[in-house]
Specification:
Blueprint: H1 2-9, H2 18-35, H3 41-70, H4 76-83
């Protein structure tokens, strides 16, 4: 599926008019839709957006896990006392 996305991004050429870009975009989307066996382009675009969001969420999750691993050795109570934010 990555090839399809790259193909979609590299489908315009210098000198193409907005009409030819629109037709080429439609052709590319229909080609992707049929190859990936989606019933319509809306379902294909929804799937691609979901993939993109999941990919971004996965990357953010990994980054958050890395930050949490760095905090493993931090004693939270000592940190609160040092910052003078203890509620007690």
């Amino acid at each position: 599926m990555v090839n399809y996305r790259k193909q979609l991004l590299i489908m315009t050429a210098e000198g193409m008019t907005s009409v030819s870009v629109s037709l080429e975009t439609r052709r590319q989307l229909n080609q992707m839709r049929s190859m990936m066996e989606f019933k319509n382009i809306d379902l294909l675009l929804g799937h691609l957006l979901m993939e993109k969001r999941l990919s971004r969420l996965s990357a953010e999750s990994k980054q958050l896990q890395e930050h949490l691993e760095k905090l493993d050795n931090v004693n939270v109570n000592d940190l609160i006392e040092k910052l003078d934010l203890s509620p007690f």
